[in-house]
Amino acid sequence: MASFADVIGSLDAQARAPLYQQLQRALRDAIADNRLGADEALPPERDLAEEFGVSRITVRKALDALVTEGLLNRRQGAGTFVAGRVEKSFSKLSSFTEDMISRGRRPESVWLSRASGAVTPEESLTLGLSPGSQVYRFNRIRYADGSPMALEYSTVPAFCLPSEDAVDESLYEALDKHGARPVRALQRLRAVLFTAERARLLGAPDGSPGLFIERRSFLRDGRPVELTQSYYRGDAYDFVAELSTAGS
Question: Which residues pair with 215 in a beta bridge?
Fold first, then answer.
């Protein structure tokens, strides 16, 4: 049976690079060329330290850096795993929480802010609201299995929810509970480079590539009910769409 060092390569104690950086690079390269597959479990830190002849502190430092980069994730009580890229279909209108649960991953949120206020001119135009109308704004970092995946900034008209505190983990669950879940949406996607602040919030290097998605969702009667602008980590998400010829 091949050892883990056979999979990712050995470390060189005589090299100029610190051992934790060598281990970090070896793991990163093994993930990049699929020698380590998505959701594959890594050996325990104690076993890695013994196999490579390094301290557990060295192993932990290397793994911590890759967790921050989003290449690995830690699952409480289970260990450390290669992060799997998430495929998000453009053909299905679903929430981040629903997407993660359907893939067997654990969604979480860290709130940046939630508040009520008067609609801005841009929001008024996008949501079809009169000047002075009240809206709720929900800004948060979205996580899967403890790894940051996206920044999400949502605005909904105040008629959709009783208060800004009505949203817990899932915005769509709250909208559904109050009879205002959208049934269709328009989405726009473009590539972006993260600003220093967005990179910091997502635990990514400054200037990292990402995906910007703007979603405008509608009720069955045609009223706009949601404006969400999201910044997804480019190393964690793939957006897919099924295409067919007309009339097929």
Answer: 187, 228
